[in-house]
């Protein structure tokens, strides 16, 4: 079993990005600028956004964080998004999810200008991805593709089972792995919470991308020997051994399955750091205006 170290790979990407920023400064060109909008005081969202701002500091990007009250109206938020769209100093920005229930997530996603949509969620970017045209890839799938490539994991002709169909991870992941590219050329099965006898499919898989949001879901009897498991799940579970009273757990039961895997990602330290690193890469692309 080989551990896929997302933290180490993300640090290598940050070093590359830092060198890119140094060159931009040397040439007196604009440094990438990432902005983030967060609404309310969701602890998980705050943690994610802080990590993104910290990454900006690490590589030398400019960053802006706008914290808004959870009572903000949808119209007020859309006005702010339009201002960010028009602000030429901002190369890309994100609106941290989840949003308060009174705000339509689809409206917000579609309001972000595609050329500044570094999260890769806008229908234009998703459509361009589907057509295999240059686009901002959703950060988590982008990061997973980087992990597969960096670890020389063979994907061509392999059976990949994606568990979870969200537009953030599962659906774009299924498209990327089926494309005629490297990594890619997989035979892909997309499963989800309504799939009957899901373990029937996971036992056939050469590669499993797991993003179902259920801690310790994937067990030993659900996989075959030598499978590659990419665990996207980040779940808070109770713990008597931590000061906070909880710990992070993946969707896979790591201790139960690790010795049957050829490669596996840990939680934390696997996909999470690569998601942020990919967001940083998308921001550099936006700074260069390479896609639009």
* Overall average pLDDT: 96
The chain-level structural class is alpha/beta
Biggest sheet, spatial arrangement of strands? 1-11-8-7-5-6
Give me the CATH superfamily of the largest domain. NAD(P)-binding Rossmann-like Domain
- The level 1 CATH classification of the largest domain is Alpha Beta
Explain the overall architecture.
This protein is α/β, with parallel strands linked by helices and 292 residues long. The protein is built from ten helices and eleven strands. It has helices at residues 6-26, 43-59, 74-86, 105-111, 123-130, 139-150, 170-178, 198-202, 254-257, 271-288, and strands spanning 2-3, 33-39, 62-68, 92-95, 159-163, 187-191, 207-210, 227-231, 235-238, 246-249, 261-264. The strands form three sheets. The protein has a six-stranded parallel sheet with strand order 1-11-8-7-5-6. Strands 3-2-4 form a three-stranded parallel sheet, covered by helices on one side. Helix 7 (170-178) links the parallel strand 5 (159-163) and strand 6. The radius of gyration is 19 Å and the shape is globular. The mean pLDDT is 96.
